[in-house]
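TEACHING EXERCISE
Course module: macromolecular assemblies
Task: Read the component lines below, then compare them to the predicted structure of the full complex.
Student: A.B.
Group: 4
Components provided:
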Amino acid sequence: MEEEGPMVQLKSPRLNEVDLQETKPEEPAVLANPAVVTPNAITDPPEEAVFSISELSLWYGHKQALGDVTFKIPVNRVTALIGPSGCGKSTLIRCLNRMNDLIPGVRTIGVVSYHGQDVYAPDIDPVEVRRRIGMVFQKPNPFPKTIYENVAFGAKVNGYKGNMNELVEQSLRQAALWTEVKDELKKSGLALSGGQQQRLCIARALAVQPDVILMDEPCSALDPIATLKIEDLIRELVKDYTIVIVTHNMQQAARVSDYTAFMLSDDRGVGRLIEYSPATDVFTNPKDKRTEDYITGRFG
Amino acid sequence: MATAPVVLRASGRVAVRQAVSRASAYLFLGASLVGVFVLFLLAYETISTGAGRLSWDFISNYPSRFAERAGLRSSAIGSIWVLGLTVVMSLPIAIGTAIWIEEFAPQNKFLTIVKLNLANLAGVPSIIYGVLGLAVFSRFFGFGSTIMAGGFTVSLMILPMTVIASQEAIRQVPSSIRDGALALGASQWQTVWYHVLPGAAPGIITGIILAVSRAAGETAALIMIGAFTFIAFDNTSPNEDFTTIPIQIYNWTIRPQEAFRQNAAAAIIVLMVAVLSLNLLAAVIRERFRRS
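Instructor-supplied answer key:
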């Protein structure tokens, strides 16, 4: 114990300095205090809602990760979830298709209503939920199989009866990948570049013919050109699908989203929804001081 | 400002530390050579004694009370039967257990106990499995001292090894693959069947081959269930009595005549070649799948 003493002392002043300068400019406790709710900071969109989330809280074991999140996600729009690392945005998006079920020790209370049905109701089957609500992950995760098999897999396991070749082509076209891979459908999905892999994962999700596509930081492992392609694709897909995207890149949220939700963890590390409005309002005229601080780069 | 010349050659305490470091390398080399030396000595002894007896007749003759006419025919066939049966019985049980533990089992105390016991079972001496096999398979199920009883006993004995190897192979499949499949609306079984098992197959097969190649040398458990018998016919069904190469080796080494010792050495060479071939097969399978 005695040996540890001086080391901690050496380290801590430097850490504090960084903390003060970069993450918590003033009164850190108040910054994300859930008691401080700015009026009208959370305004639900006028469009028909696909998801209606109310008082959603989530615990990983004893650690609470989400607290009382309430908002509505509109149909055929891009809704972006932004906020600093660890604010619960990935946790929140994974609640929408019950991917959090796969993590041991997760407990959820509140309602995630999808077209009027609570996806957490006891008689709801997560497999039915997930085939309607597709997901694209942070790191491209094509199966170690051919491009064709990657796209066909979801349709196959869901009992698709139509023409599989047509479905694969149509899905790859929708994901703006067809022209690049049409002559090498038998090639392994892993042989593609990172950006192509991510578009393959999008094609794979589209082949199940979902209603909603969730994207959990889909561009964070990609270079700027591949990122731009995915962003163009998102704007194209939103004509037919409802898209929810998690991103830590504010420029990306500003470019692609119609509505933006800003999240922040409070002093206990519980993720809270701070502001939710049309993207233009969030980025040009934020109602909450904490949103303004974040988007102007004062912390996070 | 005048500065002292910089000395980068090892001197003083650094020189001493480096000398100790170099010496330690030789020490560890020595430790490694002990094992290699003993292995070479054993191999040399065996080959020089037994090589002269190796011939096609030695493999194709039945055992005999005349050393120069005795051969491995019935024991080799018995070994192949037992090991074949072991593979057939181990594969589904090992894979099924490993899938349950890794993919389906609820994470609770019971599972922890099961996992702990698997590791413990791997360390139980084989004679204990022999006693168990005698009581359960030979007596209770009435298999007697047949290939069936031997196969069940050996499968049970290597089960911990095969299960643990399968578990490790299943854990090697990245969880992002599972997430990807589940997010497409695949059920848990579809995810396991289409993605986890194909990914884990090379590891599982390799692990089972290695476990079987260790079981190829198993003697004690099989003697316990009564495989120490004189067999002068070819086994054609699992309901027959049998013997195996290691038991034949044991049989020959306890004879007083020198000629039977030579037979034992020759049989050891045959067994070693067989085990090495199995290990090589496992290595080939592993490499083949790793590249693709």
